[in-house]
Request: fold
Amino acid sequence: MKPIKLIITALISVCIGGCSSQKELQADAAIENKVDSLLNQMTLEEKLGQMNQLSPWNFEDLAKRVRKGEVGSILNMVNPEEVNKIQKIAVEESRLGIPLIVSRDVIHGYKTIFPIPLGQAATFNPEVVKEGARVAAIEASADGIRWTFAPMIDVSRDPRWGRIAESCGEDPYLNAIMGTAMIKGYQGDSLNDPTAIAACAKHFVAYGAAEGGRDYNSTFIPERVLRNVYLPPFKAAADAGCATFMTSFNDNDGVPSTANSFVLKDVLRKEWKYDGIVVTDWASALEMVNHGFCTDGKDAAEKSVNAGVDMEMVSETFIQNLKQSIAENKVSIETIDNAVRNILRLKFRLGLFDNPYVATPQTVKYAEKHLQTAKTAAEQSVILLKNENQTLPFTDKIKTLAVIGPMADAPYEQMGTWVFDGEKEHTQTPLIAIKKMYGDKVKVLFEKGLEYSRDKNTAGIARAVSAAHQADAVVVFVGEESILSGEAHSLANLNLQGAQSQLIKELAATGKPVVTVVMAGRQLVIADEVKVSDAVLYSFHPGTMGGPAIADILFGKVNPSGKTPVTFPRMSGQVPIYYAQHKTGRPANPTEMLIDEIPVEAGQTSVGCRSFYLDAGNSPLFPFGYGLSYTTFEYSNLSLASDKLTAQDTLSISFTLKNTGKYDGTEVIQLYVQDKVGSVTRPVKELKRFQRVTLKARESTQVSLSLPVSELAFWGYDMNYTVEPGDFTLWVGTNSAKGLTKDFSVSAL
Ligand code: GLC
Reply:
């Protein structure tokens, strides 16, 4: 870039950025200078090489291509010596010495494995999520990884979709907050810190709306719903400085995201002023031929780059075709230059030109501090769904404990999906933890009952029942093996697999207190099992330290505080079910007559004409934001500084929260708002704030919340993003289904 242009760029960014410091502007300007200077030296082949990302099968083949400048980034090489070796070839043996970006899916931990993102969302604690991502970055950078493909912030409202495990749940605001926390954790304070790894907001966009919850399936999300529901977490990621974005596999309204210039250019670049890298998902460019959207690889390459993609993951249509496309004027050299600029900019920001080699010591892996961070995250991710007669926490009356179930000692499964580098040998399972941490208090009788979560062989149940008869209490660990959630792992039936339900029912039939602990990658349908259990804990695959976390919860050292980041259905057929539904013209009554109450020969309209299921009703088993504690909390004295506001005002909310029980505990208070009438129908409520509040037994506190009215804006009928004057209702409470409520109004200026 010519100096004069450089100064103008700097001035423009002051106007646009507004908040960038002079020093940051100078650093940015210096990097732009270096980018342009390097770009001007590159041949077209070298430019196309930078746009090419490979997952190497053979080191020598890769070395040849790197030497020729045909590779810009690699994924799935995790041996630090090998990474340094290939990097050395790039830096010292290629013509321009441009370093590679080394990438890997580090989704919820690298060696120390944290709860799956859905479990991290259940903490409602962005701080603990940020710390987890920071630990992952420190451990991953020790093997040369400087780019991860996380956070996955696809709003997910369908547990049939296995990738709900990787998301932060059903709510746009929760996904935005948690995604931002992960980005800050991965990227640290500065990308050129050797332990910083570039984050990747994925999958852009609406991938979680796959029809039928079947992975990779088409989505049909209109622009207004895109903007009001699916885009907000990605806007937050862009605002948080997320270094890269990844296009999603799905076609939305017939257009595959990898060639969707509306989201990739109009929204991401023009509206959001984004200057990071856009990378395809694995072969998603070439797969547009399968979609029937492109005729061949060349067509796919042209449609991808012309829509705004910078780098192609593994399918190599760019490097194989774009030289010809440029010669045919189907792709402009400006398009290529812009893509390569985005790639080089990130390499400079990561400091790879100055420090291309692995710098973090190997000793960071599984560091005690990291394990403790993971344990804290696991503790806060566990949700207490039921606790009758104070079954939990176990007291010293429990002398013999039957530990049962296929997930009680399943070190691999407990880590959950998307774990390539965590080692099961480091997993501390509940059985190990209970014996190690509480073996002096209780005698443990262990019976698996079933060999694995899908096991239909009931031969082991008798031994489990026998152990239960000898014990004072039973804790049974069920759920899903990790293979049953994650990418390409969709389920049509959300009930517990195998003979797990029978195992729980036979244990309950012994009359002993039964605590059911579910470890899964999604919310499962567990209505029957909850009914026969005295207490239920839900733990979305909790990772390496899940055992100690659950053990401390069972024995009361830790008071559970997790909340459901997704709505739990009563039946699979209720899906998709989520709290932020629209009201419809015939909303269900809470007391609808259900199927077994309907008389024979009932008249056509006798059960009413409302929007609900005859067999399941309309309410969930557990609502979004739900979670119990060993103590109880009381909300009172809700007040608003004013209930008449304009769009420029800030809503000031205050209420009292009291810990009315005998245990210290943490409550996640939640603020929901309903826009009662809009130019388009609006959700019955939307989460706008949440906060963890820790109180000692009997302690109370005054909680204050501020909500700028501007945050009530939405994309209305005319597709403008505005706050529409009118009446609103807010709730503060312990979950999305109940709370103290107040009305307020917003008037035009
Ligand atoms: C996969 C996933 C994506 C992942 C990428 C690289 O297919 O869709 O989330 O980051 O390929 O492994």
The pocket of alpha-D-glucopyranose is lined by residues 105, 149, 202, 281-282, 487 (CB under 6 Å). The longest helix spans residues 22-39.
